[in-house]
Specification:
Elements: H1 3-14, H2 21-29, H3 31-55, H4 60-86, H5 98-104, H6 113-139, H7 143-170, H8 173-192
Helix pairs in contact: 1-6, 1-7, 3-4, 4-7, 6-7, 6-8
């Protein structure tokens, strides 16, 4: 089995439900808005990596993994900016990400559990992004974007794996599994109640 499908299946095993079918209809009709929001998502993903390596500077594995992730996410951000330029668009203001805010509100406020929750929630967001990018790749007509989103879906799947592996490196594996189950249940409820906005996590 190709690596792409192996990684994608790992992400789907983590998620407890699929994206609302109505989202892709809205996304296709408002593709420029989705691409703009995607740029902001890549920028914030790089910010998450930077925050983790800054906060947990004494954890060598986190520092190294997040250094790689930040470099990759900034590359994705640059690519999306170039795509916007080809579309004749300029990146607009970040409208925020209510999905991510809602999920992150469940992160434990006290260490060391906060570190575990931050790694797990970052992994869940990457898994959902993987699913959304795959849906876009399967449904949009723009061939350049279709190819780009297929490649990025693979990348997001790899990031999910990285975050969960890091959590299991520093915490008991059974504890990580239990918390992953709890947080993906919360994430599933958030997804179920989204209003299908033309955003990557809308």
């Amino acid at each position: 089995m190709p690596i792409y499908f192996s990684l994608l299946n790992l992400c789907m095993l983590c998620l407890k439900n699929k994206t609302n079918p109505g989202w892709i209809k809205v996304a296709i009709k408002n593709l420029p808005s989705v691409v703009m929001d995607h740029a902001h998502c890549e920028k914030k993903a790089a910010g998450t990596g930077t925050s983790l390596l800054s906060t947990y500077f004494d954890k060598k594995e986190i520092s190294l993994a997040m250094s790689d992730l930040v470099e990759e996410e900034i590359g994705h951000y640059r690519s999306v900016i170039n795509i916007l330029d080809k579309m004749g668009l300029t990146l607009g203001r970040d409208e925020g990400d209510e999905y991510a805010k809602s999920l992150l509100s469940s992160v434990n406020k006290n260490e060391p559990m906060r570190m575990m929750d931050r790694l797990i929630t970052a992994g869940i967001i990457e898994a959902r992004s993987c699913e959304r990018l795959q849906i876009l790749a399967e449904n949009i007509e723009n061939l350049e974007l279709k190819k780009f989103y297929k490649e990025l879906s693979d990348s997001e799947a790899g990031h999910y794996v990285t975050f969960i592996k890091l959590a299991k490196l520093y915490f008991d594996e059974e504890l990580v599994r239990k918390r992953l189950d709890e947080l993906t249940q919360i994430e599933a409820e958030i997804i179920k109640n989204l209003s299908n906005k033309p955003l990557m996590h809308g």
